[in-house]
Amino acid sequence: VAPLVSFLSDFGLEDEFVGVCHAVIAGICPEARIIDLGHGIEPQSVTQGARVLAGAMPYVPVGVHLAVVDPGVGSERRAVALATADGRRFVGPDNGLLLPAAEACGGVEAAHAISERRYMLRDVSRTFHGRDVFAPAAAHLAAGVPLDALGPALPPAQLVRPVFPGHTVFGTAVEAAIEHVDRFGNVRLSVMVDDLGDLFEPGRLVEIDTGDDRYYARCAATFADVGAGEFVLFRDSAGAAAVAINRGSAADLIAAGTGHEVRVEFEPRGGDWPLDGDAEE
Amino acid sequence: VAPLVSFLSDFGLEDEFVGVCHAVIAGICPEARIIDLGHGIEPQSVTQGARVLAGAMPYVPVGVHLAVVDPGVGSERRAVALATADGRRFVGPDNGLLLPAAEACGGVEAAHAISERRYMLRDVSRTFHGRDVFAPAAAHLAAGVPLDALGPALPPAQLVRPVFPGHTVFGTAVEAAIEHVDRFGNVRLSVMVDDLGDLFEPGRLVEIDTGDDRYYARCAATFADVGAGEFVLFRDSAGAAAVAINRGSAADLIAAGTGHEVRVEFEPRGGDWPLDGDAEE
Amino acid sequence: VAPLVSFLSDFGLEDEFVGVCHAVIAGICPEARIIDLGHGIEPQSVTQGARVLAGAMPYVPVGVHLAVVDPGVGSERRAVALATADGRRFVGPDNGLLLPAAEACGGVEAAHAISERRYMLRDVSRTFHGRDVFAPAAAHLAAGVPLDALGPALPPAQLVRPVFPGHTVFGTAVEAAIEHVDRFGNVRLSVMVDDLGDLFEPGRLVEIDTGDDRYYARCAATFADVGAGEFVLFRDSAGAAAVAINRGSAADLIAAGTGHEVRVEFEPRGGDWPLDGDAEE
Hints:
- The structure is a homotrimer.
- The first copy, chain A, is α+β, with helices and mostly antiparallel strands.
- Chain A has 5 helices and 15 strands.
- Chain A has helices at about 15-30, 45-55, 100-105, 130-140, 250-255, and strands at about 5-10, 35-40, 65-70, 80-85, 90-95, 110-115, 155, 165-170, 175-180, 185-190, 205-210, 215-220, 230-235, 240-245, 260-265.
- In chain A, the strands form 2 sheets. Chain A has a 7-stranded mixed β-sheet, sandwiched between helices. Chain A has a 7-stranded mixed β-barrel with strand order 9-10-14-13-12-11-15.
- In chain A, helix 1 (about 15-30) packs parallel to helix 4 (about 130-140).
């Protein structure tokens, strides 16, 4: 079977950045099969990239995993390649992008700086290391070059950790940030449903306060559990708490975007809120 | 030759949905070759997806054809796999998405519900069956699993049929809806040129009335048959009647979008309209 | 190793155009490996396509290079296939799209019109030659059909040349156009850094005048050489002069878009401009 290289970035598909990286990989390791995990990470959003990479790994066969979200390109930030306990290789900038995925894959067994010029393109620009440094390194690993040939070993403890937006629980209220809005208008919050404990209970009403507006949603397993046009708070496919509208787009109503803070208030048990089940503003 | 899996969806490419499905397929059937027919179907537009899938099939080699536009995910709608007379396999939700393509490929010879858990991912979410149910089923079929292993047979007559926007002809006028606006600003109407009979005649003038505005176009075989900047009514590459501007974007002028109704009035023969060939508003 | 077909177009990924071309290629040459160099060229922008294709070639293995940006589809413009001195084959419309890339790859050794119907799809539409003419020709070349089987030879000197936006130097000022704005908001000008001669000097201040607004930037090797939020004039990964904001988007501030003319004034040596290094408006 062909060696697999997965590829995640914030390059978008409007420009030729992704295609040129594919070409570079094909030139170094023609037999590699490349799977694009996606290139729509918000420009320079290392935390979003880290979340998506870690969340995707359970579905991706073992291989070389190239990820590039690199606001520090051209600065002193390191380029790194990691090996994990389950046999994967990760390649990307040392800015926190790779670490959550690597830790979810058994943890970092070895980390090396990527510094050997022979495994880079001949001319290395200062603005496009995806093409000149990272894609070549991933392709060489896929072709069988050992990790330690890329550069000196690094203590895994020195790898840069990402700082994620968090959440806070106050009694029956949770403060979190909007972490992502997907194509369907589903609004992911920076809190996992598991972290809500027994606050999250199917059928329970919640008030979502964005500061500008308030919305009422019902906890449920999925959007199909509420009526068409109604708000639901549900566990999304990555395990996060997310707000959706059945057969509609929550983002079309909730004006607040990524990074905005929201407060989710759960109805007290025995529910005294003067609503009877319809989503209302 | 590698087994072929084609893949159409409304997942978009901003998020990781498509990439994760690719990864799932590669994990189950590493030798499969995946061809993305496109992932830009408007969110939850089953009819647009059905049209595009059926229209693409004449160009796609026989294989497994995965399609996911699934507003009913998590509800009781069925997951199905179909075999057609020409040897193809279709996989997707039973909501009308697959049927027109299957009927254009010789008709449905066998239909099976996808219900066997062993051919799904171990954990099946209620919101992302593309990843957890449909991609695995397509991959197993590509790997040689027989259709009837996926679940019980269904009578083909019970499959859900899509309801397309239609058109009506009144003498020299046609009422139809805007079915799609493509990247070049070409506006496809919900009527095939063949259904216009002899109304459509090269050189004939038409008035396109959107309710808000009126535009004049000329029937022609292609946009290059009118001057730069002029409107044309032509048979697009799928056979539908479409409005374009040569070397421009009709959508930049026609404010009405998908779903909007338009009335197309053909100039009476012997043409008495006070226009002399330029597109005018 | 599988024959390689690279593919560049202005088709976008919202519609099924690219996917259908992939399917056509797979039907004719199942063993071909297709690398999408990108499909986000601005609709009908032959010059942007020509720049991107030529700029990508140094990174792309030798193969068949399919490119389609084709505002003249359906008119008398020719379809051509070219062979270059370094062994590549280029396929596309004869409108200037292919020529700069071919000339950067050793020059055109042979050019043939694509006119043999047996190497096209059976039905050739007048609006989608990407699918019906160009993709089939590229696939047949990848499958081993010789270039001269596609149609009669053309004198390379008769191939259409593209007309690029240019630049003019007046002493310490350069007038150029905005050639492209990428996903990161980097603004590429229609002048190469090499063409600026010794005007471009790290640390030197420049004033960028769009007619509507003026911005101050500093010449540097990369955005990381200025402070966060500061403007920089740098050599981008294609060698062009480009304006960026470190850790930000220049396009968010510079309202002018593609095609807009800008004047770049370099600070006289011995610098008397009353600024001390911060980007200011």
